[in-house]
Specification:
The chain is built from 16 helices and 7 strands. By secondary structure, the chain is mainly alpha-helical.
Length: about 400
């Protein structure tokens, strides 16, 4: 009788994503990149932003710990994936929700645990990483927007000398000074309060591009909108404008995105072509170039010299891009496995289509939710792009 040689069982290794990167490495790098806009949001909106993230993450992880024990779906999800998604959803929420006091007569704090629990439930229903054809974070934020639209509107930002430690709701009651064109970081803020009131730029842009805004004088033009109602662009690039936690600073979003590009986690085609196509569509699609009590004059290709000119048009496009979560969507959401197409050409088409849809929804539906709605629409075409462009063997 010969001895039977028993081969040792190989150690279990996480299956790699289609880009060849193992799942734990992918998730750890994604979480690291998410910290860039998170830290910026915690600085600009203070300890309430940190608490908002903590409540959302804790509720999502607690709900997922229970759901993982339920059926075959629970075995597909990973806690690290849930952590990443819960950090993403906290980027989409404003920091003022962390309060036990009522705002406009309504209690707002239950929105935070509801967001975490809803995210965990959708993640359980839609499957694990790489199999989700619909982003659960986007579905969650859109559901919250439909149900609690008024409560999710951010209106406060900390003074520059009260970063991190300031109370966002300890606000100066004085109205916003629209005529002050000094950047937020170079102002001398009033003493006695931690934060300033700032109306969202996206609401002002949508009121104009949808021609719902009525002129205070005889007429209103894009030039007057930018000059009289828009803050300095530095407030949107560096920080200092009311927004969600993740959109507090465009520099922080881009820094995190560049980190992912350097690590090979995302395809540069999606943020690059998505941004360029959005800019081109915003320049082409019709906008009101003149609003009066008699109505609005809509024009295609408004960058033409006898309408706006290139300088005003490009400035308007910059406000549209920086006031919306477009960069957050292109760098952190649209690049996720399962949402993006597999082939390079498919990703290019995907990015261009996403950019065009973002421009449409921002101009005529919602600046703050337009990119999320556009992503939810375009991901439905990902399977079609994969089937149409997938390389086929010759034999």
């Amino acid at each position: 009788m010969t001895d039977t040689v028993v081969k040792p069982r190989p150690a279990l290794v996480e299956s790699p994503l289609h880009s060849g990167i193992h799942v734990p490495v992918f998730l750890s790098l994604q979480i690291t990149a998410t910290l860039f806009p998170l830290f910026a949001g915690w600085a600009i909106y203070g300890w309430r932003a940190l608490g908002t993230t903590g409540v959302v993450v804790t509720s999502a992880m607690g709900a997922m710990a229970i759901l993982r024990r339920l059926g075959w779906r629970g075995r597909q999800v990973r806690m690290w994936h849930c952590l990443w998604l819960s950090l993403i959803i906290s980027l989409m929420l404003p920091a003022h929700l962390l309060t036990t006091e009522t705002q406009d007569g309504q209690i707002v704090w239950p929105i935070l645990p509801a967001a975490g629990i809803t995210l965990a439930l959708l993640s359980w229903l839609l499957g694990g990483l790489g199999t989700q054809r619909v982003p659960p974070s986007v579905v969650t934020i859109l559901l919250l927007f439909v149900l609690f639209h008024g409560m999710l509107t951010p209106r406060f930002v900390l003074r520059v000398d009260r970063l991190f430690a300031g109370d966002l709701l300890n606000c100066d009651p004085a109205p916003e000074e629209l005529s002050d064109q000094n950047p937020w970081f170079s102002r001398t803020p009033p003493t006695g309060y931690d934060s300033l009131r700032r109306e969202p730029v996206g609401d002002k842009l949508l009121a104009y591009t949808s021609s719902q805004q009525r002129p205070e004088r005889a007429s209103l033009t894009v030039q007057m909108l930018i000059r009289d109602q828009m803050p300095p662009l530095e407030n949107l690039i560096v920080g200092g404008q009311s927004n969600t936690i993740g959109c507090a600073s465009a520099i922080a979003i881009i820094s995190g995105g560049l980190f992912l590009l350097f690590q090979g986690m995302i395809d540069f085609r999606i943020p690059l072509l998505g941004t360029l196509s959005t800019m081109a569509a915003l320049l082409i699609f019709p906008i009101p170039v003149y609003i009066s009590d008699a109505g609005a004059q809509w024009r295609w290709f408004a960058f033409r010299p006898h309408y706006l000119g290139w300088g005003t048009a490009i400035t308007f496009v910059n406000y549209e891009i920086l006031a919306s979560p477009l960069l957050l969507t292109l760098f952190y959401l649209a690049t996720a496995p399962g949402l993006r197409p597999i082939t390079r050409r498919g990703r290019a088409i995907f990015a261009i289509g996403l950019g065009v849809l973002c421009a449409i929804f921002q101009l005529y539906a919602s600046v703050t939710m337009g990119p999320y709605i556009a992503l939810l629409v375009i991901v439905l075409l990902t399977p079609t792009l994969d089937r149409a462009i997938m390389p086929r063997p010759l034999l």
